[in-house]
Design a protein that fits this description.
With about 200 residues, the chain is α+β, with helices and mostly antiparallel strands. The chain has one domain: NADH Oxidase (3-Layer(aba) Sandwich), CATH 3.40.109.10. The chain is about 35% helix and about 15% strand. It has a 4-stranded antiparallel beta sheet, sandwiched between helices. It is globular and about 50 Å long. Its EC number is 1.1.1.298. It holds the Pfam family Nitroreductase.
C-alpha cells in the first residue's frame, strides 16, 4: 500500500489528508461487514431538508458475479483496464425529486456528500476507493432499469490495495507521483467573486 499524504499548506485531519484515489487493487474480497460499515457512513451524511436522496447500488463480485460483470462492462475501456482486480463497484445515484414531486436542486450535492462519507470510511478501514465518471451512463441505466427520476452520477471501485508495480508504466507513475491541487487562492474568495481570501 502506498501512502500519499496531501502536501497541505496548513495541517488538516489525517483522514482527509491521507485519502487519495489509487488504481492498484488486489482481488481479495471485501467482507460484508466492511461494506455495511461504508454504507452506514454514507447513510449518516447530511442532506438538504434531511431528504437523503442518495441511492447506492452495490456490485460485489463474490456474491453476484453476473451483476458485477454487467456493471463492469459499462466502464470506459481505460477504467476497465485498471479495475480488473477490484472486487466491488458501487453506483452512486440520486433521486431528483422531493417528496412533493418538485426538483431537488441539492440532490447531486447531497449524493456527493454521502459518497465522500463512504470513501472516507473506506480510507479509515485501510481500503482503497476510487470515484469515477468514466462509464456509459445510458448503458448502465438500461442494464439496471434505473427509473427516469433518478440520476446516475458516479461509480466507485473499492477493494484492498494492490501492487502498484503491476500497473502499466503510465498509471504506475501516476499512483507514485506527488498529489497536487490548485492553490487556495484559486478556489476560495473573500466576500466577492475573485477577491483574494
Amino acid at each position: 500500500m502506498i501512502t500519499k499524504p496531501a502536501p497541505t499548506t496548513v495541517p488538516i485531519h489525517e483522514l482527509l489528508a491521507g485519502r487519495w484515489s489509487p488504481r492498484a487493487y488486489s482481488s481479495e474480497p471485501l467482507s460484508r461487514d466492511q461494506l455495511h460499515t461504508m454504507l452506514e457512513a454514507a447513510r449518516w451524511a447530511p442532506s438538504s431538508y434531511n431528504a437523503q436522496p442518495w441511492r447506492f447500488i452495490v456490485f460485489d463480485r463474490t456474491t453476484d458475479e453476473v451483476a458485477f460483470k454487467r456493471a463492469f462492462a459499462t466502464l470506459v475501456p481505460f477504467n476497465q483496464g485498471w479495475n480488473g482486480p477490484a472486487p466491488v463497484l458501487i453506483a452512486v445515484t440520486t433521486q431528483k425529486l422531493t417528496s412533493k414531486g418538485e426538483i431537488n436542486r441539492c440532490a447531486a450535492y447531497d449524493a456527493g456528500a454521502a459518497a465522500m462519507a463512504l470513501v472516507l470510511q473506506a480510507h479509515a478501514l485501510g481500503l482503497a476507493a476510487h470515484q469515477m465518471s468514466g462509464f456509459d451512463v445510458p448503458a448502465f441505466r438500461s442494464a439496471f432499469a434505473i427509473p427516469a427520476d433518478v440520476d446516475v452520477i458516479a461509480m466507485i471501485s473499492l477493494g484492498h490495495y494492490g501492487d502498484v508495480d503491476k500497473l502499466d508504466p503510465v498509471l504506475r507513475e501516476r499512483d507514485k507521483s506527488v498529489r497536487q491541487r490548485q492553490p487556495l487562492g484559486e478556489i476560495a474568495y473573500g466576500g466577492a467573486w475573485k477577491k483574494a481570501f
